[in-house]
Design a protein that fits this description.
By secondary structure, the protein is α/β, with parallel strands linked by helices. The chain has helices at residues 2-18, 130-133, 162-167, 212-216, 314-318, 360-366, 372-391, 409-413, 415-424, 448-459, 471-479, and strands spanning 38-40, 60-75, 78-85, 94-97, 101-108, 119-120, 139-146, 151-156, 171-177, 187-196, 206-207, 222-225, 238-241, 245-254, 259-264, 268-272, 279-283, 285-288, 292-299, 304-310, 322-328, 426-432, 435-441. The strands form five sheets. Strands 1, 2, 3, 5, 7 and 11 form a six-stranded mixed sheet that branches. A hairpin with a 6-residue loop joins strand 16 and strand 17 (279-283). Helix 9 crosses helix 11 (471-479) and helix 10 (448-459) crosses helix 11 (471-479). It is globular. The N and C termini lie far apart (95 Å). The structure holds copper (II) ion. The site of copper (II) ion has 6 residues, from loops.
Length: 480
């Protein structure tokens, strides 16, 4: 009997050591389990990622993740009840390496209303861990698995109705680095796209509940990076310096849409296709499946505001799928020189006169300046063809997304600022009639006289102050 007990004890002790055996480094048998090569995983909220694994050996990786159901802003002035892994959308970023044995504890906060679980695409095993991790509010579950394949993987909740749990923000990324780690870069960021379905239309203020029918119809009101309109613009912009190499870990939680991920003003030097090990080079746009991910890398050579979009472009400018990577540093004119000259182009026999020239003499040579009435007519046509897409034909804009031009205090206060806005675009926080907007207006490609006509039309419509803008004024702002 005594002998049996002794053997049983030996057995228990040796089992406890098995998983540590191959990672045993500078430890002795008397130290506790942690010292043998187990590691508490660093989890980060987006857009941050944990430290690279470098050349550490495979270890026992301990992960604790908490599920929180919490209301927050999906757009300025619009709230939504998100369900989250770790309190953010997307959920906390997990970083490990091939060979790590993960011990995963999933906690469902007692204030939550629903059971949840986690299906990690990096798991080889039943449901990616979904059954093993299914947990009621006020409980926690622990399960374990080994990271067999390197790559960037999505994880998500898989509790019925699965689509609804995902639509409410329950997804994130887990990176499994190869042995020796990924090659070092200067900056790494974590971005995830998701589509959202609300009772109210895009930007409709107040608390917005989930709309199941729109989700079934795959007709989202919002398509977002990192869970919010402006989640990566304004104060949330990403930053890099000229000369740095940037790596983006980009996932797509869906639940429905496939992303055509593109960065305006950059070319991906490398894409780890579908987050796997095949590297494609010199890519403009990469497709990211719903429930898939991609790693893109590029060197930033020229100072600019790089704009991250889903190139299914209405999603970017009308549904929120837009972010900014701001690159600062010295200009490199051999890479990009900017506008060099602008001249008048008049096709032979054309009737429309472009007055975009300096001085009166040339102006008379080019044709008679447009009268205010002519400007109003040209301006109205151009406005309706271009500006109305965002600011609407009646100039009223869309709450929380596109500021009004009708009776806009911002517009009426400063003509040169308005001209500058049309020529160069506008980003960052602006307050119009007491409401804050924090979005991006792209630069508009119009000649000086066209710009003058559009703004004259805007200033002489919808209760604005009646300013008449001239091509000379526009030219002055452009040359400043
Ligand atoms: Cu869930």
């Amino acid at each position: 009997m005594k002998l049996f007990l002794f053997i049983a004890l030996l057995f228990v002790v040796s089992i406890g050591n098995i998983s540590c055996e191959k990672t045993k480094e500078k430890t002795t048998a008397s130290e506790d389990m942690k010292a043998y090569g187990s590691l508490v995983a660093e989890l980060t909220s987006p857009p941050n990622v944990p430290k690279p694994v470098g050349n550490r050996s495979a270890k026992k990786l301990i992960i604790e993740m908490e599920i929180l159901e919490r209301e927050s802003e999906i757009a300025n002035g619009v709230t939504y009840l998100f369900w989250t892994f770790g309190g953010t959308v997307p959920g906390s970023f997990i970083r490990g390496r091939v060979g790590d044995e993960v011990e995963f504890t999933l906690k469902n906060h007692p204030n939550n209303r629903l059971p949840h679980n986690i299906d990690l695409h990096a798991v080889t095993g039943q449901g990616g861990g979904a059954e093993a991790s299914f947990v009621a509010p006020g409980h926690q579950k622990t399960f374990s698995f080994k990271l067999l394949n390197p790559g960037l993987y999505v994880y998500h909740c898989a509790t019925a109705p699965v689509g609804m749990h995902i639509a409410n923000g329950m997804y994130g990324l887990i990176l499994v680095e190869p042995k020796g780690g990924l090659p070092p870069v200067d900056k790494e960021f974590y971005i995830m796209q998701g589509d959202f379905y609300t009772k109210g239309k895009f930007g409709e203020p107040g608390e917005q509940p989930f709309d199941m029918q729109k989700a079934i119809d795959e007709n989202p009101d919002y398509v977002l990076f990192n869970g919010k309109v402006g989640g990566l613009t304004g104060d949330n912009k990403l930053h890099a310096e000229v000369g740095e190499t940037v790596r983006l870990f980009v996932g797509n939680g869906g639940p429905n849409l496939v992303s055509s991920f593109h960065v305006i003003g950059e070319i991906f030097d490398k894409v780890f296709v579908d987050g796997g090990t095949t590297v494609s080079e010199n890519i403009q746009t990469t497709l990211i499946a719903a429930g898939g991910a991609s790693v893109v890398e590029f060197k930033v050579e020229s100072p600019s505001e790089l704009i991250l979009v889903d190139h299914s472009i209405f999603r970017a400018f009308n549904k929120g799928a837009l972010g900014v990577l701001s690159v600062s540093g010295n200009k490199n004119k051999t890479v990009f020189a900017g506008e060099i000259t602008e001249g008048v182009y008049q096709p032979e026999g054309s009737v429309i006169q472009d007055l975009d020239v300096d001085g009166k003499t040339k102006s008379t040579e080019a044709g008679v300046p447009l009268t205010k009435v002519e400007k109003m007519e040209q301006g109205k046509n151009l406005f309706n063809a271009t500006c109305a897409a965002c600011h609407l034909q009646d100039g009223k804009g869309i709450a929380n997304a596109f500021p009004p031009l009708a009776k806009s205090d911002y517009l009426n206060k400063d003509v040169e600022r308005a001209i500058h806005t049309v020529i160069y675009g506008l980003s960052g926080e602006v307050t119009v009639n007491g409401n804050i907007y924090n979005s991006i207006m792209p630069a508009q490609q119009f000649s000086d006289s066209e710009t003058a006509s559009i703004l004259t039309y805007v200033y002489n419509s919808w209760g604005n102050n009646g300013t008449e803008v001239t091509a000379e004024q526009v030219k002055k702002v452009r040359n400043n």
